[in-house]
């Protein structure tokens, strides 16, 4: 007798259940997705004991006739795809036809369903994969599915369930993911009989996010206007630069409405937020990606959580660009708590500001602002740097002093050039952020925190972080415009590498040259370093180059030279910037503030720490008990 046998269906379902249904939250996901696929306008999710005792999902969708109600419990029974071609471009949530039979094989399962045009509905009960009963039933049109005692017949899986709180928080996360992607559907979640969320249908994603996360986060989101990048349409909301989390839970991304995770997306977000997020922190995003369903494969993960893009680099690049543009366009001062007085969405709503040309506003600024700059940073008009990285019409002034000098004898601070765009403000984007005139410097706390009165309340500037940001953008601009000036070393350095690092370096010699590192192969796995960027000051240049190589290795293959350059600069400016305890005069502080506000990304330093924070009048009033906390 042969040893290979076809598994009995019930057993096969249990095996599949191990993949599809790892915990109650997965059941919630499958049921809610089925309800959405069935066109529901209202979905209720009820859980008890984190979903281990009970999960019930009620929808007002299409419902099923008796034949379908029985068929849907068969393995590989699906109404959603019919042909191989359908599989190549899946737009429904489900398609594997596995969820219901899998769930029913590991629980006490009850399905009650009725299509709107049928007089009677059907109720089916299945326990541990065994059909217990099929009967007629009245009730509302739509579908109600109840799952009791998940894994009651699979003790091995039951052991893996965590505490009620943990399981519930996973359920809540699933609920959130779908509620945000479908604001037009009314969603309710109850936990042990109490309403946790009731979210009426709305046409605004932001309203839906607000209903789920509260005002504090919703007010600190910036919009990603719907726009196409490289054939991929992006839209949604993302956290302002100061908003981040230590886990990836709030980094939510959708692909054609399906919540998904993909390395290409994470890379793209990282790159878009580059230098505005602290190390180890993750962004908060609600980002919707729409693209041709033939350009990726969702059928790579049993829970359909991950996708494989045919061209991951294009996706990464598109996401990075959308994020960067959104962050640059919506510049708001981070607040401690509470609603921002100047919500990013209202940016252009002040008619005065939107009617008057931007250059006119700026000219007035320039007249009233003190023109003295004593800081070792550039003197600049308050014109913001052009957002476009267009090559300057006239050759920009030499960026750095490129005299040959031994590494140890560099000037104390790099002499930075005046901005290349001192007098031409036209053509740059209308600036809607605050200007230096909106703030009055009151004093400096601890020789670090500059206290200022702003129109919305108290504004505090970290002078070190602010100076880092200003220098960072100046250096980056010079790098983009004229490349990085190098200085030849008096004595070339010899660099000995392992074969893999040597290979990496060989492939990136051109990129490095653009960044001011001139290296040349010199024997097997050995390189001669002839020149280094002028602004690098280090006692140990070889260790510094090791860091650069390490960074090269970390970057995904398609990452730009610009990004590597940004990293190099970011680590350098910290050492050059004014220090925490450097005491600066008021005109110096004013100049610093002006330069900061003229930056592309003024509200955080290149390491992602905030440069300015604001405590609003409202918050002060609450703190002093003049106004009830809301
Ligand atoms: P899939 O979603 O992959 O098709 P499922 O096992 O989740 O597989 O569901 C099987 C089928 O049952 C679906 O294709 C659909 O026709 C039907 N179905 C499941 N849930 C519902 C529901 N809430 N309303 C209407 N039809 C449903
Ligand atoms: Mg399904």
Spell out the blueprint of helices and strands.
Blueprint: H1 9-20, H2 24-37, E1 42-48, E2 54-59, H3 66-71, H4 84-87, H5 99-105, E3 108-114, E4 121-127, E5 130-137, E6 142-148, H6 155-158, H7 164-181, E7 186-191, E8 194-199, H8 205-213, H9 215-218, E9 221-229, E10 232-239, E11 244-245, E12 251-255, E13 258-259, H10 263-272, E14 282-283, E15 285-290, E16 296-297, E17 308-309, H11 312-329, H12 351-355, H13 358-368, E18 439-445, E19 449-454, E20 457-462, H14 463-482, E21 486-496, H15 499-507, H16 509-514, E22 518-521, E23 526-533, H17 541-554, H18 561-576, H19 586-597, E24 612-616, H20 617-623
Parallel strand pairs: 1-7, 12-15
Antiparallel strand pairs: 1-2, 2-6, 3-4, 3-6, 4-5, 7-8, 9-10, 10-15, 11-14, 12-13, 16-17, 18-19, 19-20, 20-24, 21-23, 22-23
Helix pairs in contact: 1-5, 2-7, 7-8, 10-11, 14-18, 14-19
The chain binds adenosine-5'-diphosphate (ADP) and magnesium ion (MG).
- Beta content: 15-25%
Across the major sheet, the strand order is 5-4-3-6-2-1-7-8
What structural class do the secondary elements suggest?
alpha+beta
The percentage helix is 25-40%
Superfamily (CATH H level) name of the largest domain: Histidine kinase-like ATPase, C-terminal domain
Radius of gyration: 30 Å
CATH fold assignment of the largest domain = Heat Shock Protein 90
Which spans have pLDDT < 50 for at least 5 consecutive residues? 336-431
From the spread of the alpha carbons, the general shape counts as: globular
């Amino acid at each position: 007798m042969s040893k290979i046998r076809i598994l009995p269906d019930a057993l096969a379902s249990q095996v599949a259940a191990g993949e599809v249904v790892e915990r109650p939250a997965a059941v919630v996901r499958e049921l809610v997705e089925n309800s959405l696929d069935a066109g529901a306008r209202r979905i209720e999710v009820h859980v008890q004991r984190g979903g281990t005792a009970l999960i019930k999902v009620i929808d007002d969708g299409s419902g099923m006739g008796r034949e379908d109600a029985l068929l849907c419990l068969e393995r590989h029974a699906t109404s959603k795809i019919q042909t191989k071609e359908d599989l190549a471009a899946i737009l429904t949530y489900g398609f594997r036809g596995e969820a219901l039979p899998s769930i029913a094989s590991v629980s006490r399962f009850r399905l009650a369903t009725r299509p709107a045009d049928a007089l009677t509905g059907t109720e089916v009960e299945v326990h541990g994969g065994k059909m217990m009963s099929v009967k007629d039933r009245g009730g509302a049109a739509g579908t109600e599915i109840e799952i009791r005692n998940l894994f009651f017949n699979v003790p091995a899986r039951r052991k893996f369930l965590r505490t009620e709180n943990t399981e519930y928080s996973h359920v809540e996360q699933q609920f959130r993911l779908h509620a945000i992607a479908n604001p037009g559907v009314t969603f309710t979640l109850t936990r042990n009989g109490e309403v946790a969320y009731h979210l009426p249908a709305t046409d605004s994603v932001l309203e839906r996010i607000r209903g789920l996360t509260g005002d504090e986060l919703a007010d600190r989101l910036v919009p990603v206007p719907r726009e196409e990048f490289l054939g991929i349409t992006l839209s949604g909301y993302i956290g302002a630069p100061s908003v981040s989390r230590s886990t990836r839970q709030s980094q939510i991304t959708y692909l054609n409405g399906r919540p998904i995770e993909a390395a290409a997306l994470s890379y793209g977000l990282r790159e878009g937020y580059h230098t505005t997020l602290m190390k180890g922190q993750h962004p908060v995003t609600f980002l919707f990606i729409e693209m041709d369903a033939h350009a990726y494969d969702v059928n790579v993960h049993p829970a359909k959580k991950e996708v494989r893009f045919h061209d991951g680099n294009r996706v990464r690049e598109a996401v990075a660009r959308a994020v960067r543009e959104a962050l640059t366009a919506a510049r708001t001062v981070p607040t401690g708590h509470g609603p921002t007085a100047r919500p990013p969405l209202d940016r252009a709503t002040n008619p005065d500001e939107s009617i008057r040309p931007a250059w006119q506003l700026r000219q007035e600024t320039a007249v009233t602002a003190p023109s003295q700059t004593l800081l070792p940073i550039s003197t600049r008009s308050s014109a913001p740097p052009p957002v476009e990285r267009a090559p300057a019409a006239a050759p920009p002034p030499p960026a750095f002093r490129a005299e040959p000098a031994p590494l140890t004898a560099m000037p104390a601070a790099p002499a930075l050039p005046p901005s290349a765009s001192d007098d031409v403000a036209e053509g740059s984007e209308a600036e809607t952020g605050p200007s230096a005139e909106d703030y009055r410097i009151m004093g400096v706390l601890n020789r670090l925190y500059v206290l200022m009165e702003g129109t919305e309340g108290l504004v505090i500037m970290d002078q070190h972080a602010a100076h880092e940001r200003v220098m960072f953008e100046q250096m980056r601009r010079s790098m983009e415009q004229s490349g990085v000036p190098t200085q030849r070393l008096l004595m070339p350095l010899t660099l000995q590498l392992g074969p893999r690092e040597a290979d990496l370096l060989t492939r990136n010699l051109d990129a490095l040259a653009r960044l001011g590192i001139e290296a040349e192969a010199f024997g097997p796995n050995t390189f001669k370093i002839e020149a280094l960027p002028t602004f690098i000051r280090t006692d140990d240049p070889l260790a510094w180059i090791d860091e650069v190589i390490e960074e090269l290795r970390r970057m995904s293959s398609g990452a730009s030279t610009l990004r590597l350059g940004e990293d190099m600069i970011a680590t350098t400016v910290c050492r050059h910037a004014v220090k925490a305890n450097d005491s600066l005069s008021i005109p110096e502080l004013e100049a610093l503030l002006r330069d900061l506000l003229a930056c592309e990304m003024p509200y955080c330093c290149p390491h992602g720490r905030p440069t300015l924070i604001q405590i609003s009048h409202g918050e002060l009033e609450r703190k002093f008990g003049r106004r009830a906390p809301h």
